[in-house]
Design goal:
The protein has 242 residues and is mostly helical. The protein is 70% helix and 3% strand.
Length: 242
């Protein structure tokens, strides 16, 4: 099998832009690139890797986490698929509970337990830790292990201030490539490095995509103003291309 990027995009249901980005961050590179035409081609191995990525995306893993997992020296594809099956089964069971809870809610019954996702999140965390033993993950664990509640609150407030500044820049019609906005991106990168792990441009680019690709992050950032997450993502893309 050999497909050009447009064919591969249509076959897998992702956009050409997404494939370009996956290539940029080293998550999914083409099987080969024609040196004369510059055309990108994908093969069977590309499809297998894309399937792995899509399974993890379905489970709400960030692109950064997916890359760490797939590039981990401990990664075992067969075992990972079994982990994914367990996670998807837990997710399916939770959805069935929620569907059933709707009927109970109509009857006026208390259905709060239906929202409990503890088991899924616990299993997901275990799977991520099992396959994602990267330097960034280890640095994050070491740096944050003794953080107090006040420290976590301060970090969250600092991040909130940065996102507020992004939203104000957007409202004031600053473009993502403006000096003021690009300086904010640098502040964001420094904030992550100072409090979590060394935030390289590559990691930062993955975070930018997560801000728009993960609905939880997008919703939290867009509380400052609709479109803020997309604005931050675009600003990060400009910053990382320099």
């Amino acid at each position: 099998m050999k497909m050009q990027i447009k064919e591969f995009a249509e076959f897998t249901g992702v956009s050409v832009r997404t494939l370009h980005y996956y290539d940029e961050i080293g998550l999914l590179t083409p099987a080969f690139v024609d040196k004369i035409t510059g055309y990108r081609f994908y093969d069977e191995n590309s499809l297998i890797r894309m399937q792995e990525i899509l399974f993890y995306r379905e489970l709400d893993f960030s692109l950064k986490s997916i890359k760490e997992i797939l590039l981990s020296p401990n990664y075992d594809k067969e075992k990972a698929l079994k982990e994914q099956k367990c996670l998807l089964t837990l997710k399916k069971e939770r959805l069935e509970r929620l569907i059933s809870a709707i009927d109970s809610a109509v009857k006026g019954e208390n259905i709060m337990k239906a929202f409990d996702n503890t088991e899924f999140e616990k299993y997901k965390t275990e799977a991520q830790e099992k396959w994602g033993q990267t330097d960034a993950y280890k640095e994050h664990e070491e740096k944050t292990k003794n953080y107090s509640k006040q420290k976590w609150d301060d970090i969250a407030e600092d991040m909130n201030c940065i996102m507020t500044e992004f939203s104000l820049c957007m409202k004031n019609d600053n473009t993502p490539d403006s000096a003021e906005v690009q300086n904010l991106v640098k502040n964001l990168q420094n904030h992550i490095t100072e409090n979590y792990y060394l935030c390289t441009d590559q990691i930062l680019a993955g975070l930018g995509q997560m801000y728009v690709g993960d609905e939880r992050f997008k919703k939290n950032i867009d509380k400052h103003a609709d479109g803020t997450a997309e604005f931050v993502c675009e600003a990060i893309e400009v910053y990382c291309r320099k």
